Predict the structure of Putative membrane protein YccC.
Amino acid sequence: MVEPLIIALLSLGGVVLTVCGAIAGHLLSARASARTTAVQAEANKRSNEQQMIDQLQEELHGYRNDADARASDQDRRATVQDERMERLEHRAEGYRDYAHTLRAHIYNELPPPPPAWPDGLPR
């Protein structure tokens, strides 16, 4: 009677060890799976953040290019305006000089014709 009891206890012990091993294996597997999932989620988060950074840098690069284009266009227009202003000032000086010449002609009571129109000065 002792032999069947020992065999039954040994069998029961084997079953208990198998069940404990299965439970421990399942827990270790679940833990490893959770760790893998967490690492993957962190990698995805970093990847998304890096993607957002790249996108923002591209937008900033575009804005800077637009600003540079506007600045160079504004510089070009300012140069054109400066050149135009210099031409107009030169023309105004010519008209003013001719007006003084005419006034001097009249003041000196010189007869007609008036002094000749200056070369290069539009009428």
Remarks:
- The helical segments are 2-107.
